[in-house]
Predict the 3D structure of the following.
Amino acid sequence: MIDQLRAYFAWAHLSEPADEVAKDLVRNLGAVEAWEWLVSGSQSAPHGVEDAAKLLSRVQPWRARLDIPFAKLWDRWTREGHRFITPIDPEWPFANSRALENPPFGIWFVGSEQIWDHMQQTCALVGSRAASRYGLQATAYLTSGIVEQGVTTISGGAFGIDVACHQTTVAEGGRTISVQAGGLDRLYPETNRELFEKITVSGALISQIAPGGRPTRWRFLDRNRLIAALADATIVTEAAVRSGALNTARHAFEMGHEVGAVPGPINLPYSVGSNNLLRDGAQCITTPEDILELLGNQITASAPKGFHSTKQTLLDDLPERESRVLDAFPKKKGTTLENLSRISAISPSEVQAALGMLEMAGKIARQGQLWMRKW
C-alpha cells in the first residue's frame, strides 16, 4: 500500500510536470487512488473522469515506466540530501499562488530549510545568458540593494544575468533560490557547481524534474513559470528579442504578478527585449528602490545610487569581450580555448585575442593546453 507522499513521488517520475492529463486524474481521484488504478492494469477509465478517451490514450507511456524502482530511489535521494516537497507539505511554496495552473506533483529540494521562513518578499532577476557588461553591472547593483532589505532573490542558475543575481546575493550574505530545469543531480551549467554549493548554505536549489532528468529546451521554458510563480516581482535586467527571460515575464504578467524591466541602449540587440517590455507595460526599473516599491516595501534602500559606486568585481574595467571570456572560466580548474568559446558564445579567434589581453593583465595564466584563473 502506497501512502500519499510516495504516490506524488511516483507520479512525478511517471509523468512530465506539464502533463495535464495526469494532473486531472490525480485531482479527480487523489494521488493514491490514481496510482492504484494505474498499477491495476485496468483498460477502462475510472469513474468520474471527464475525458476517458484522452486518459486511456496516455496510459501506455505511464505504465511503461512502472519498472522504475521507486522505493530505492526514495531511499537514495533522501540519503543524498534531496527532499521531495509536495502540496501536502506545509512548506509547499505554491499554496498561495492560485495563478499557477497545473502545479507540479512535487519539487525536489536541496538547501536550507530556513529559506521557507523568508518568502514574504521575493524577486526574480532574469535575463540573457550572453549578457553585456552593462547588464551584469545593472543586475549586481539592483540585487545588492534589495538583498540588503531582506528580499529573497530567485533566478535560473544559467550564465549571464542569472549568475550575476545569485553571485551577488551570496556575496551580500542573502538568500537566493535557483530553479533548475533538470534533476538536481544534473545541475546546469556544471561549471557553476561551486556557486550552487554556496547557494545551498542559506538558500536552495529546487526542480520539478526528478533526479536523472536532463535539462532540455522545453523544460527550461516550463521551469520559467515556476520562477514567475515564486516571485512577487520579476525583473528583466537585459534581454534580446528572443530571450527566455521574456517567457518568464510573460508568465508573471499572466499570473498578475509585478513585472519590471531595466532600460537599455536602443541601438544594441541585447536590450530590445527588455525595452519592448517597457513599451508593453512593465515598470521601469533603474534603482533598487524601484523594485522595493513594486514589492510594497516602504523602507528606503541604502544601496549605492549608481553603478560606479558599487563594489568592485573581477569583471570591472574590462572590455565586454574580455569580461565574457573571463566569466566563462571555471572557478578552480583549467579549461580550453574551445570550452571558453562555447560557453561565452564568442568565436575561437576572438577568444584567443581576449586570452592574450587577460594574460597581460595578470588575470589568467597558461598551463600547457589549459588556461586558468589567477585568483
